[in-house]
Structures are given as C-alpha cells and as structure tokens.
C-alpha cells in the first residue's frame, strides 16, 4: 500500500483481501484508489452527507409569476405532446 496525503493506492487483489479495513479508512475521509494491472480504475470514498435544506432560504430571490399555473396555449401544448417517431 502506498499512502500519499489522504489518498491510498492498492491493487485489486489487495482490495479484495482488505476490503473491510479499506472501507473503514474511506469512511474516515481517505480516498482509496484501486488499480487493475497497475492502472487506476475505481475509487472508494465516503458518501458526503447532503447539506441541510433551510426553509425560506430562497425568500426574495425567486419570483413566481401570477400566471404560473395557467394552461399552456394550444399551439405550445401540441408541441409538448408530439410523439417522436
């Protein structure tokens, strides 16, 4: 295993043998690069938690027109409903 900064490179056979250990390391933020025949082909890394959405965060930044939900004109509606052949 070659460790440089927060990246670790291992062969596919080594990754198979040490998968649980590598998964734990990845969960702590380390990026694991797995190679096949000496060529990098996949990375194992932790899933990032999605940022928390805040109610009202876009207040005053987004304007929804009064006619937002009015029916589309027939000509435009026909274009949307065309079937591709």
What summary fits the major beta sheet? 4 strands, mixed
User: Which strand order do you get reading across the main beta sheet?
Assistant: 1-2-3-4
Strand content: 15-25%
- CA-to-CA gap between the ends? 54 Å
Q: What is the helical fraction, as a range of percent?
A: 25-40%
Rounded mean pLDDT score: 88
Question: What are the low-pLDDT stretches, counting only 5+ consecutive residues below 50?
Answer: none
Look at the structure and give the CATH class of the domain at 2-44.
Alpha Beta
**Assembly state (oligomeric):** single chain
CATH architecture designation of the domain at 2-44: 3-Layer(aba) Sandwich
Shape: elongated
Order of helices and strands: EEHHEEH
Total count of strands: 4
The assigned structural class equals alpha+beta
Gyration radius, in Å: 25 Å
CATH topology of the domain at 2-44: YefM-like fold
Summarize the structure.
The chain is α+β, with helices and mostly antiparallel strands. It has helices spanning 12-17, 19-27, 74-81; strands spanning 2-4, 7-11, 31-36, 39-44.
């Amino acid at each position: 295993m070659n460790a440089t900064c927060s990246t670790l490179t291992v062969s596919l056979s080594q990754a198979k043998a040490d998968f649980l250990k590598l998964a734990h390391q990845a969960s702590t933020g380390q990026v694991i690069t797995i190679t096949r025949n000496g060529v990098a082909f996949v990375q194992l890394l932790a899933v990032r938690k999605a940022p928390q959405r805040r109610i009202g965060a876009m207040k005053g930044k987004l304007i929804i027109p009064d006619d937002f939900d009015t029916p589309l004109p027939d000509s435009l509606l026909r274009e949307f409903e065309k079937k591709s052949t």
